[in-house]
Specification:
The structure is a single chain. The chain has about 210 residues and is mostly helical. The protein has one domain: Rhomboid-like fold. The chain contains nine helices and no strands. α4 runs parallel beside α6 and α4 packs antiparallel against α7. The longest helix has 24 residues. It is globular.
């Protein structure tokens, strides 16, 4: 079982903070008439000069359809409140960002001409982590399956949302493999290695 410090705050504060950021960014997208969307979305040809887009795109959603942000917001709420309570605030944020970054790297390799927005890669990282944790206890969660189905559908029916971003779920597995306090150093090292590998994979695609 994943371990947390005794007396640690169990409220999903990071999840609520991420939802708040996404909501504020969405409002700003509307107020800017799409200008902010263009500056924060991820489009692979801009990776070299504006690499931060690989992460900022996680907080940007399609303004042409409210379903995109509503589904992603619901998914983040359902998965985030569960996963964050299991692994803690810091590891949850690391998981969310690494999964989102992994999704952008997947887009860079598999759909280099497609501009994408949304937190689908990060959300599927949360799904992967929770799925593994639950399976380790022999459990099942109907809500989890519903969230998975909704996000898969959204990846195909809403313009500008790439299904390749869902591959970002792969980065979640380290959280389960190094879940004890004694493995904290190994976890930090492995998560750092994942970040390095993702950066290296991006550089390989861009410069080789």
């Amino acid at each position: 079982m994943l371990t947390r410090k005794r007396g640690a705050d169990s409220r999903p504060l990071a999840t609520y903070s991420l939802l708040g950021i996404i909501g504020v960014v969405f409002a700003a997208q509307w107020l800017s008439g799409g200008v902010l969307t263009e500056r924060l979305l991820y489009w692979p040809p801009l990776t070299v000069i504006e690499p931060w887009r690989m992460l900022t795109t996680v907080f940007v959603h399609s303004t042409s359809s409210l379903f995109h942000i509503l589904f992603n917001g619901f998914s983040l709420y359902v998965l985030g409140t569960l996963v964050e309570r299991l692994i803690g605030h810091g590891r949850f944020v690391a998981l969310f960002l690494l999964a989102g970054f992994g999704g952008s790297v997947a887009v860079l390799w598999l759909a280099p001409s497609v501009a994408v927005v949304g937190a689908s890669g990060a959300i599927f990282g949360l799904f992967g982590a929770l799925f593994v944790i639950q399976r380790s206890f022999g459990g099942a969660n109907v809500q989890l399956l519903i969230v998975l189905a909704l996000n898969l559908v959204m990846g195909f029916v809403v313009p500008g949302i790439s299904w390749q971003a869902h591959i970002g779920a792969l980065v979640a597995w380290i959280m389960v493999a190094t879940r004890t306090f004694q493995q904290k150093a190994a976890q930090i090292g492995l998560l750092s290695a994942v970040g390095v590998v993702l950066v290296a994979a991006s550089a390989l695609r861009l410069f080789v």
